[in-house]
Design goal:
The protein is built from no helices and 19 strands. By secondary structure, it is mostly beta strands.
């Protein structure tokens, strides 16, 4: 766990376990997460700028603070949001938003100006917002949470609404 700002200008390889980036930072290089490993943006403001890449079948997660994506983003493994805010800004482009995606809190803002391809999504709580078109081509399990903003959500696969204790659905 890094409690101070961490600036990635090289290659960070998470081969096992979890790295928590708690102090924010500016990133302009590669993150590689192995199967079973996780890279967690866990606090502060993380600027994910041009030159940053993500590789490997592991998890990239936003848990606290903010992750500001300002580059082309491909998550070949899994993308999770459990708190904090993930912003896909106008200077970003999302080519792959994880093989599996899980949102259990926090906010994901899609404002890249492009369509967002999403394979599968488990949506337990939180907010998916922004002005982009989100294309969910695989399954969507929607238990709680909000779709908000001016964007469009296209459900192209199987969709399941699952009632939780005091569920809320908003679209």
């Amino acid at each position: 766990q890094w409690l101070f700002p961490f600036h990635n200008e090289g290659v960070v390889r998470v081969q096992q376990g979890t790295i928590y980036l708690t102090g924010g930072g500016t990133h302009v290089a590669a993150f590689d997460t192995s199967a079973g490993a996780s890279l967690v943006f866990n606090g502060g403001s993380n600027l994910v700028n041009s030159g940053t890449s993500f590789s490997g079948p592991g998890v990239v997660q936003v848990n606290a603070g903010s992750a500001e994506f300002n580059t082309t983003v491909t998550f070949p493994g899994a993308f999770h949001v459990s708190g904090g805010t993930a912003n896909f800004n106008p200077s970003s482009s999302v080519t792959t938003l994880g093989v599996t995606n899980y949102i259990s809190g926090g906010i994901v803002n899609f404002n890249s100006g492009e369509s967002i391809p999403v394979n599968t999504l488990t949506f337990y709580s939180g907010t998916i917002a922004g002005n982009d078109t989100v294309n969910i081509t695989g399954s969507l399990l929607w238990q709680n949470g909000f779709f908000d903003g001016g964007g469009v959500v296209n459900l192209m696969g199987a969709t399941t609404l699952q009632s939780a204790f005091n569920p809320y659905y908003h679209y």
